[in-house]
Design brief:
Strands 2-1-3-4-5-6-7-8-9-10-11-12-13-14 form a 14-stranded antiparallel sheet, with no helix packed on it. The chain has 173 residues and is mainly beta. The chain contains one helix and 14 strands, in the order αββββββββββββββ. 8% of the residues lie in helices and 61% in strands.
């Protein structure tokens, strides 16, 4: 019986963030006289809503965010922004799974368009930058991307024949 109590008490401590100073709740992004701010009440307008861990009045930790444009984010937050591992789902059916920094895609991730085509690789400042693979209806592109475009990359058809090549962002003929 004592072991059961110890296990129950330990489990309760692990799952109850309030005991460790991490509160949870719902926040709304409201327009104020000094800009936008996270608040605990709605102002009656369609706005961004957050449900999850809160620190210093902002989303911090794990939570779920619904934006007024219909975008949804599920994952880690820091200082009110997506930061760390997470997933975004967009109204058109496309989605992103991967790393975020300061609210933007940053690090390794996969962006999947609504038609099923996808880019998997490195992101910086919200766009493909670095090594990646883009899967398309007629084949795929592999190589380095810069500012969302093939930089030093090769395009392959479905039989893995090279059909295109980019050098320093210029498609070679």
């Amino acid at each position: 019986m004592r072991k059961i109590f110890v296990v129950f008490a330990f489990t309760h401590l692990l799952v109850n963030p309030l005991l460790f100073g991490q509160e949870t709740g719902v926040l709304y992004m409201n327009k104020t006289s000094s800009g936008y701010a996270w608040q605990t009440f709605e102002d009656g307008k369609v706005q961004t809503k957050y449900n999850g861990e809160i620190k210093n009045g902002k989303p911090n930790g794990f939570g779920y965010q619904t934006y007024k444009n219909g975008n949804k984010y599920f994952g880690k937050h820091k200082n009110g922004l997506p930061n760390g591992e997470g997933r975004s789902i967009y109204p058109d059916g496309s989605m992103y799974l991967g790393e975020y920094k300061n609210g933007k895609f940053q690090g390794q991730g996969t962006f999947i368009w609504k038609d099923g085509y996808y880019y998997e690789g490195e992101f910086r400042d919200g766009t493909p930058n670095g090594q990646g693979t883009e899967t398309l209806p007629n084949g795929h592109l592999v190589g380095e991307y810069k500012d969302g475009k093939p930089w030093n990359a090769k395009g392959y058809d479905k039989e893995s024949n090279i059909i295109a090549k980019w050098v320093n962002g210029v498609k070679q003929e």
